Structures are given as C-alpha cells and as structure tokens.
Amino acid sequence: MHKLSIKRVYEKPEKADGFRILVDRLWPRGVSKSEAAVDLWLKDVAPSTDLRIWFNHEPEKFKDFSKKYTLELKHNPAVHEIEKELQKHNVTLIYAAKDPNINHAAVLYKFITDSIKKRL
Q: What is the pLDDT of residues 2-41, one digit of tens each?
C-alpha cells in the first residue's frame, strides 16, 4: 500500500503528491485545471449536497458532520476508486476548504486509513 495524504488545492502541486484526486463536489473557485494538476476529479466521494449545505463549514457542527459523512462513506463505492489508486502509487486527496482540520477531506482520509488498518 502506498502513502495517502491530503492537501489544499491552493497549495503548489509537488511530485511527492503522487496521484492527485480532487474530492470536492464543486470545482474550487479561482483555480484553473492546469493549476490544480488533478489526475482525477472524484465528485461522488464528496459529502452529499444536503450534508454539505447543512455543515456549512461551521466548526461546532464538525463532530456531527464527521459521523454523518462517515455513514455516507460506508455505502459509497467511490471510496474503492481511491483504494485502487493507492495500490498503484502515492495518492493525495485535494480539497478547497480553508480549515485544514475541519473539512470533509480530513474525514475521508481518516475513513480510508482506518479501513486499511482493519484489513491488515
């Protein structure tokens, strides 16, 4: 298994990022496709529209958001796309949210890493 990491789309792409997967449902504002250097845009792994709107990046909702999004991920086949890429190379989950700790990519990262640990 290769390395999984997360990074804001507004940070400069690096070779060490490996395969870059944008995990946002909406394209990030002010970023061109070439600037983003995304290898795959996996919209379907993002939180549902209703959950995203409800959360609204409000820190006090993050704990409940994490639980609800984790439940969505348990039934989301798009997660397997990320796991397949991890078998081939390093993967970086790319997201646009401002807070590096309170965002769906952090929840997705934890979900995948926990899932991998359970199988080992």
A: 999 999 999 999 999 999 999 999 999 999 999 999 999 9
Question: Residue 7 corresponds to which amino acid?
Answer: K
Distances 7 to 15, 23, 99 between C-alpha atoms, Å: 13, 11, 11
**Paired tokens of 47:** 């939180």
pLDDT recorded at residue 117: 84
Which long-range CB contacts under 8 A does 63-69 form with residues at least 24 apart?
65/104, 65/107, 66/107, 69/104, 69/107, 69/108
DSSP state of 37: T
Pairing between strand 19-22 and 40-41? parallel
Spans of all domains in the chain = 4-119
What pLDDT is recorded for position 116? 84
Task: Convert the pLDDT of each residue in 18-28 to its tens digit.
Answer: 999 999 999 99
